[in-house]
Amino acid sequence: MANDPIHQFQISKWIPIEIGGLDFSFTNSSAFMVATVAAAGAFLFLTTSSRGLVPGRLQSISEMAYEFVASMLRDAAGSQGMRFFPFVFSLFMFVLVANLLGLFPYFFTVTSHIIVTFALALLVIGTVLVYGFWKHGLGFLKLFVPEGVPGVLIPLVVLIEVVSFLSRPISLSVRLFANMLAGHITLKVFAGFVTSLSALGAVGITGAVLPLIMTVAITGLEFLVAFLQAYVFAVLTCMYLNDALHPSH
Amino acid sequence: MAGFGNALRLSSEFIAGVAVGAGLGWFIDRMAGTSPWGLIIFLLLGFGAGVLNVLRSAGQIAEFGAKPPAGGKGSDRK
Amino acid sequence: MEVEAAKAIGAGIACLGMGGAGIGLGHIFGNYLAGALRNPSAADGQFGRLIFGFAVTEALGIFSLLVALLLLFT
Fold first, then answer.
1. DSSP, res A114
2. pLDDT per residue over A23-74, tens digit each?
3. Which residues in chain C (49-68) have CB-CB distances under 8 A to chain B?
4. A160: closest CA among A142, A140, A175, A145?
5. How far, in Å, CA of A233 to CA of A240, rounded?
C-alpha cells in the first residue's frame, strides 16, 4: 500500500556484504549515516575555512554551534569536562544533522531506529564507566552511595541507584528514537490523508486543505523536535560525564 | 510544546527504570535459577529507581554529581 | 484448556489492574492541577506529596504488571 506509514523506516540493502556468516551489508541506513557525517563535516569545514575575524553568516552558525555545546558542557561538568568536548560536539552534530536530514522527503531517518540510538547511548555510558573507573578506581563506586542515608537502608539504596544507573542508556535512547519515530509516522499519516482525500473529487480537494495545513504545521514542529532532542541528548551526556568526573557527592 | 516534551521525558525515565529492573531480574533468574524471586525483587527495585529517575529529572533532588559543577559537596539529597 | 493459553489469558486479565492505576493517577494529577490553579503559590510546596501519591498509586499498578510478567516468564 502506498500510504503505509511504516514503509519509510524499511532497511534495504544497497551493497550486500557478508563476512563469516554475519551481515555487513551497506544499507540505506549506513548510506545516510555517511551522508550525515559528510554533511556535518563539510559544513563545519567549509564555513570556518575562511577564518574571518568578523564571521559571515554561515561561519557564525558554526561558531554558535561550537559555543552552544561548549557552554552546555562547561555548565554541566565544569572546566574539567572540556576534555570531552570533541566527543560531545560530535554526538550533538551527528544527532542534529541526522534528525534534520530525515526531514527531507524520501530521506531515511537514521535516528528513528532504536539500535542506532541505543548504540549512541551505550557509547556514552561506556565512556562514563571506563573513564570513571580509570580516573577514580574503585572510588567511582561512591556514585552509588548517597550521603546521609541511615546505615540500614544503604544496601537497598545502592541497589536502587544501580538499577537507576542502568536505566539511563535505555531512557536516553528510547526518548530520541520514540520522538523521531512518532513524529515521522504522524507526518506520514497526515500526508496520506491529503492524497486519499484529494482522490475523492472536488469536495475531497477542498477537504484536503485541512490535513495539508496540519502537515505543514507538523513539519515546522518536527524541526523544533529535531533540534530539541539533539539538545536533550547532549545535555544528558554532559550530566552523565559529570558523574564520571566527580563521582563523590 | 515544551510541556509535551517534558511529559514524554518523565514517563520515559519511569518506564526505563521499571523495564531495566524487570529485565535484570529476569536475567538473574535465568542465570541463577532463583525463579521467580529475582523478577519480583528487581521489578520493585526498578520501580524505586523509576521514581528516583522522575524525581531527579523533575529537579526535586540533586543530580548524581550534585549541582555545583566543581564537584563540591552537593547538599540537598533527601 | 491448555496451560499456556490459560497463562496468557491470565496475564491479559492481570493487566486490567493497571487500568485502575491509570484512573487513580488521573485523579491525583487532575486534583493536583485543580488545586494548583486555585492557589498557584502553594503548588510548588506540594510537589513532594504529589510524587508520593504518584508512587503509592503506581506501586499497585506495578503489582499487577508483576503478576502478568510472572505468569508470562516463569
1. H
2. 888 888 888 999 999 999 999 888 888 777 777 888 888 889 999 999 989 8
3. 51, 54-55, 58-59, 62, 65-66
4. A145
5. 11
Closest to A181 in 3D by CA, of A32, A6, A28 = A6
- Reduce the DSSP state of residue A128 to 3 states and report it: helix
State the residue range of the domain holding B35. 7-58
* Strand-strand pairing, A18-19 and A13-15: unpaired
Is C47 in the B-facing interface, judged by CB distances under 8 Å? yes
Residue B72 domain flag: no
Instruction: Return the CATH number of the domain spanning residue range C1-73.
Output: 1.20.20.10
**Domain range annotation of chain A:** 25-245
Q: What are the sequence ranges of the domains in chain C?
A: 1-73
Q: Is the ipTM of this complex over 0.85?
A: no
Number of domains forming the structure of chain B: 1
Instruction: For chain A, list the strands marked E by DSSP.
Output: 13-15, 18-19, 22-23, 26-27
Question: Using a CB-CB distance cutoff of 8 angstroms, which residues of chain A are in contact with residue B50?
Answer: 164, 167
What's the pLDDT tens digit per position in A129-161?
Answer: 999 888 888 888 888 887 777 888 888 888 888
pTM given for the model: 0.80
Grid cell in block for residue B28:
538473574
- With beta carbons less than 8 A apart as the criterion, state whether B44 and B21 touch: yes
